[in-house]
């Protein structure tokens, strides 16, 4: 009520699911700093900035790049592009996420063409389904090509080719803008947008709406626009150009912080909040596990994708690529290969092959390491269980799980057995009472309690998951790590098995019928869509009691057998290291050259000035030792954050220490190689050639 007068007067069950700790750590800027809302409501923030400032400047920059001198030493626009824009955008991500996309010149031009098309009567299409499914792979492929083009044609030292790069991305925005409504290119296809999406999940700011504040709203002006509050702002009038439902965002990857939802909503429900870094990955992931409070450990909510994770890796590879002469020298090869331009000869082919390989090196290394770690971890886990767990303990686990399975209780009855006082948590005495109801021999009580461990505030859902994991550990130890795995798939959702079961149980019977189970195909639960035939087969496998319906434990068992954790879940742990590598490299270029921009203005416009005036133009260049200190500091912080985030993601997905250690070592190798190249005195000249 304090923050929003439209909120309901009564609490409903879903309101109790809000993590109170997560609410306390947010600072609501629009309420604490009221004049911010006035700034956001101004049409000059985005609405008039894009057509009247961004677009003309973009056209001017491209003209200078095409018509001006072709090297950075003589072209101020080329210097700003490579030595200013890159370090600038990397430094923006932790503070304002993807806000660059809100003022992006590519889409500013696309908006102009879109408005022209609609004024000419063109009926813009809805977004096709292939964009979401195939967009990340397209962005990955295009980014790989662009990075190879940048290296092989030496784009940072060519004004015309740099302009061609800008126009290539602009053409994608324009083509999609005149065919599809809103910003399909930015949301799903743009390679720069894909990079921004990844790094924006680490942002310390967010735009969010709590669902309860939207109750009773029938206009959805935050999405559709058209609010009378923005009648003077053509940009905000369109609503959310990324077609997002702000109250359903899992992370800040897609939001460009254009504030259209804030400007449109007459209830003032959308909030602009300050939050800890990496909130989307759950907190507090930067702290050691030993000092974390379990009640504050929220799971990561970031929606992962294999191809977007690949972009993180090739971006880290692009940093190594800038040090190709040093790499060639260290391997005893001719360093001049790194400077060979396009030609039909062996040297250029070698340059191209090396470029392709180095871009893919970080991703390939992590992928191979993960593939090697999975069977190793399973084998070690089986061996550990055989050495540390007695036959009596294994027997007790099997007895418990199979008793729960055969009991064939509906969901509410199963929950009631373990949470008898209805407080949402399971205490030790409630566990023992459940053992009695399941007819577990009394001499097995202490064995099972010891295996389940003590956890304050444990929920029924987490307890069921622990019991099931213990059971499958026993099965693996007896039958081998591969024996229970069928056709594997990856989960798309962050919901627990119990929550999924509850959603699928449409009739509230506490069991899943065949039709309810098959409805999973339409719920977006899997990375790879399953056909009805495949789900029918899974249902038949799961129905071990032959009742024609599934209880909770039959359902959990079949999912556990067929669901795996893909590398993309862990791969997002490399995000801080990739950001740190890029930031350290581009900051080095900025510290070397951005301070020379004014001195390069005369040559840019072919204006002669006397040497006396030229000497009077301020020039700022940092010395090599200062650059190295900054680069080493950024790399160290990002490396620590990467290992911590990887640990958090492994914990969230119940990934063991072997797989985590493998990725931590891989990240260490990447950080050491990058630092070695950056801090090599002879590499600083060739790296910024």
Number of strands: 5
Largest sheet: 3 strands, antiparallel
The pLDDT mean sits at 83
Q: How helix-rich are the residues, as a percent range?
A: 55-70%
How many angstroms does the end-to-end distance come to?
Answer: 58 Å
Total helical segments = 31
Instruction: Compute the CA-based radius of gyration.
Output: 28 Å
Approximately what portion of the residues adopt beta-strand conformation? Answer: under 5%
Structural class: mainly alpha
Biggest sheet: strand arrangement: 1-3-2
Taken from the alpha-carbon principal axes, the silhouette is globular
Contiguous uncertain segments of 5+ residues: 12-21, 481-487
Question: How would you portray this structure in words?
Answer:
This protein has 689 residues and is an all-alpha fold. The protein is 58% helix and 2% strand. It contains 31 helices and five strands. It has helices spanning 20-24, 29-32, 35-41, 49-67, 76-96, 105-119, 129-152, 159-177, 184-189, 191-200, 221-224, 260-264, 306-321, 324-330, 346-388, 391-407, 411-418, 428-437, 445-452, 460-479, 497-504, 514-518, 532-542, 552-562, 567-571, 575-593, 597-604, 611-616, 624-652, 657-678, 683-687; strands at 27-28, 205-208, 271-274, 489-490, 563-564. The chain has a three-stranded antiparallel sheet with strand order 1-3-2. A two-stranded parallel ribbon has the order 4-5. The longest helix is centred in the middle third of the chain and has 43 residues, at 346-388. It starts with 19 loop residues before the first helix and ends with a helix.
Question: Care to give the gist of this entry?
Answer:
The protein is an all-alpha fold and 689 residues long. Helix content is 58%, strand content 2%. The protein is built from 31 helices and five strands.
């Amino acid at each position: 009520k304090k923050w929003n007068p439209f909120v309901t007067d009564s609490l409903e069950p879903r309101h109790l699911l809000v993590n109170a700790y997560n609410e306390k750590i947010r600072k609501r800027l629009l309420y604490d700093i009221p004049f911010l809302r006035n700034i956001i409501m101004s049409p000059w923030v985005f609405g008039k900035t894009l057509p009247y400032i961004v677009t003309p400047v973009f056209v001017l920059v491209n003209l200078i790049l095409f018509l001006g001198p072709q090297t950075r030493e003589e072209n101020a626009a080329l210097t700003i592009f490579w030595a200013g824009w890159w370090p600038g955008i990397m430094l923006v991500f932790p503070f304002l996420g993807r806000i660059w996309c809100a003022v992006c010149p590519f889409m500013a031009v696309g908006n102009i063409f879109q408005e022209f098309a609609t004024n000419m009567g063109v009926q813009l299409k809805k977004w096709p389904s292939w964009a979401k499914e195939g967009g990340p792979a397209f962005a990955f492929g295009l980014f790989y090509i662009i990075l190879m083009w940048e290296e092989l044609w030496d784009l940072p030292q060519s004004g015309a080719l740099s302009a061609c790069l800008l126009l290539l991305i602009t053409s994608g925005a324009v083509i999609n803008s005149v065919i599809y409504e809103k910003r399909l290119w930015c949301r799903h296809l743009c390679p720069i947008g894909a990079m921004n999406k990844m790094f924006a999940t680490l942002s310390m700011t967010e735009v969010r709406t709590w669902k309860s504040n939207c109750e009773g709203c029938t206009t959805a002006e935050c999405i559709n626009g058209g609010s009378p509050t923005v009648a003077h702002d053509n940009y905000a009038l369109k609503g959310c150009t990324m077609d997002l439902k702000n109250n359903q965002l899992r992370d800040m990857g897609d939001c460009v912080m254009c504030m259209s939802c804030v400007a449109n909503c007459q209830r003032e429900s959308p909030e602009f909040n300050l939050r800890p870094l990496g909130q989307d990955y759950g907190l507090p992931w930067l702290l050691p596990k030993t000092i974390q409070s379990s009640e504050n450990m929220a799971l990561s909510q970031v929606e992962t994708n294999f191809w977007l994770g690949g972009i993180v890796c090739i971006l880290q590879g692009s940093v190594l690529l800038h040090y190709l002469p040093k790499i060639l020298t260290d391997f005893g090869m001719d360093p001049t290969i790194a400077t060979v331009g396009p030609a039909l000869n062996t040297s250029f082919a070698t340059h191209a092959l090396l470029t392709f390989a180095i871009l893919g090196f970080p991703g390939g290394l992590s992928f191979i390491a993960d593939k090697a770690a999975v069977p190793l971890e399973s084998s070690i886990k089986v061996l550990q269980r055989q050495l540390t767990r007695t036959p009596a303990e294994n027997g007790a686990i099997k007895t418990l799980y199979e008793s729960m399975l055969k009991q064939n209780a509906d969901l509410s009855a199963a929950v009631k057995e373990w949470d008898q006082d209805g407080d949402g948590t399971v205490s030790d005495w409630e566990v023992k009472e459940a053992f009695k109801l399941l007819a577990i021999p009394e001499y097995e009580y202490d064995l099972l309690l010891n295996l389940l461990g003590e956890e304050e505030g444990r929920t029924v859902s987490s307890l069921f998951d622990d019991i099931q994991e213990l059971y499958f550990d026993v099965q693996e130890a007896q039958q081998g790590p591969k024996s229970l795995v069928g056709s594997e798939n990856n989960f798309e959702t962050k919901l627990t098995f119990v929550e999924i079961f509850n959603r699928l149980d449409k009739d509230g019977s506490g069991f899943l019928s065949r039709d309810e189970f098959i409805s999973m195909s339409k719920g977006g639960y899997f990375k790879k869509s399953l056909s009805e035939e495949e789900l029918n087969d899974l249902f038949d496998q799961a129905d071990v009691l032959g009742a024609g319906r599934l209880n909770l434990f039959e359902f959990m068992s079949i999912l556990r057998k067929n669901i795996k954790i893909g590398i993309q879940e862990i791969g997002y742990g490399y995000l801080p290291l990739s950001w740190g590598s890029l930031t350290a490299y581009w900051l080095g270029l900025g510290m070397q050259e951005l301070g020379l921009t004014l001195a390069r203005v005369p040559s840019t416009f072919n204006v002669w000035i006397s040497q006396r005036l030229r000497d009077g133009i301020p020039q700022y260049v940092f010395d090599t030792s200062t650059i190295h200190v900054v680069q080493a500091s950024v790399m160290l912080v990002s490396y620590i954050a990467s290992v911590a985030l990887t640990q958090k993601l492994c914990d969230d997905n119940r990934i063991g220490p072997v797989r985590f250690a493998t990725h931590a070592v891989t990240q260490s190798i990447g950080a050491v190689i990058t630092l070695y190249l950056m801090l090599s005195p002879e590499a600083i000249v060739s790296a910024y050639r």
